[in-house]
Amino acid sequence: MTHFVRDLSLRYKIPLRVLMLASITAILVTASILFRVYDETRNDLLRHAESMGRVLANTLVSPITHDDVWRAYEIINSPFQGGGLDRTQAAETILVLDTRGLVYVSTQPVQYPMLSDPERLDPEYAAISDLAMNRTDVKSSVIDPPNSSRLFVTIPITSEEARLGTLVMSYSKDLFMPLFIGIAQRAALMTLLALVVLLPIAWYWGHRMAGPLVRLAGCMDQIGHSVPENLHCDLFESHDEIGRAGASFKRMLKELKEKESLEQEMMASERLAAVGRLSAGIAHEINNPLGGMLNAINTFKRHGSGDPHTLKTLSLLERGLTQIKDTVAALLVEAKVGSHPLSHRDIEDTRTLVAAEAAGKGIALLWENDIAADLPLPSTLVRQTLLNLLLNAIHAADKRVECQVYRDSRSLTLVVKNDGAHISEEEMPYLFEPFSHLSRNGHGLGLWITYQIMRQLNGGILVESAPGETRFAITLPIQEEP
């Protein structure tokens, strides 16, 4: 049960705690009222008892002096006649004790006969025996014996300072119970009405207060080892503690996403850099024997026999080795120092180079070139990058390829789109690796070379792919010459 209450949602804990607090408050207020009513009722009863007792004690002086028992009996029974007393003010029993503490007369002569010892007949009267025998005590007393069901009011009966006896009036404590029960019932009814009114208010407050925390907890539950891509948290925003917690959580999510993106970029960059270093090392090792082999073939063709079959075989070997040399050269991407600044004509030359390829496949080539003045960028590398993107797009396209080249004050942007099959999320991390099995044409070096050029020029590349359109966007920073 403890675990169930502890694990209960705040949407239910808050209303339950409000109702519990209201109930405890109602109980404490009712108890306070009951104690106060008890004290006031008891004090009123005792004041009335003392007042009536003095009247009876003064009236009993003459009958006791003349030993008129019947007259004394009529006097002590007079309060019970006429019905003028409230039930809570009516004495249960009135006894007149003589100076020896024995019954002189009582309102219940059968239960307390004359000259009987009331203590023996009823042990609760033991508490008043000492007062009855005390001849010097001339003051009234209120006696509330512990563990007794009655209160006792004793009034001495005196004549010229002489003690004639003691008037004892007993009151049942049960007289207070109907009053207490009535108050408790009214308090319970009012508490119930208050709870009925508070329940919807507490429920509303509970949802208002716990709702933001519930949404925050729901968002936190969705976060595992990584932040989901499509995670959207509709969190409460304010300047209180809950609002600040939501704002901090949003900020944390943003930082986690940026951290994951940076980690992925670093991993991809490190992987490609490692592949690049390996490829470059292999390329250098291959270039030396490859160059020697091509030189040997060239020498043999110039100075060897003119046998046509041999020359044909050597030509086949030369073309194969030349293709290997071109592939190896593609692995050694180096900036061309002598490259002239990029111009409008360079972009248009690239269009001319790919136009025949696009026309041969029936691909519509949409072109937009907003470059007017020369830009301080190496034209050879930019053209190679744009050419690689366009050839890949043409091979992947179904009907259309779009190219947009434009600049702003700080950068040059190359955008190439095609309407072919889109690139899946699983393929994205391996898109720029050389000789990738994901390459749909060629040896897969085009995008890898493009990536290496972007690193040399401190540029960036963004790939977006969905069914019906794949978009490559390259941004190259422009450093104006002084």
List the helices and strands and how they pair.
Layout: H1 2-6, H2 10-59, H3 61-65, H4 69-77, E1 93-97, E2 103-106, H5 118-121, H6 126-133, E3 141-143, E4 150-159, E5 162-172, H7 177-221, H8 241-303, H9 308-330, E6 341-342, H10 344-360, E7 364-369, E8 375-378, H11 379-396, E9 400-407, E10 411-418, H12 446-456, E11 460-466, E12 469-477
Q: Which spans of ≥5 residues are poorly predicted at pLDDT below 50? A: none
Based on secondary structure, the structural category is: alpha+beta
| Fraction of residues in H or I helices | 40-55%
Total number of helices: 12
Distance between the termini: 78 Å
Q: Any idea what the CATH superfamily of the largest domain is called? A: PAS domain
CATH architectural grouping of the largest domain: 2-Layer Sandwich
Average pLDDT confidence is: 77
| Shape category | rod-shaped
What is the CA-atom radius of gyration, in angstroms? 55 Å
Task: Tell me the number of strands.
Answer: 12
Query: What is the total domain count?
Result: 3
| Strand percentage | 15-25%
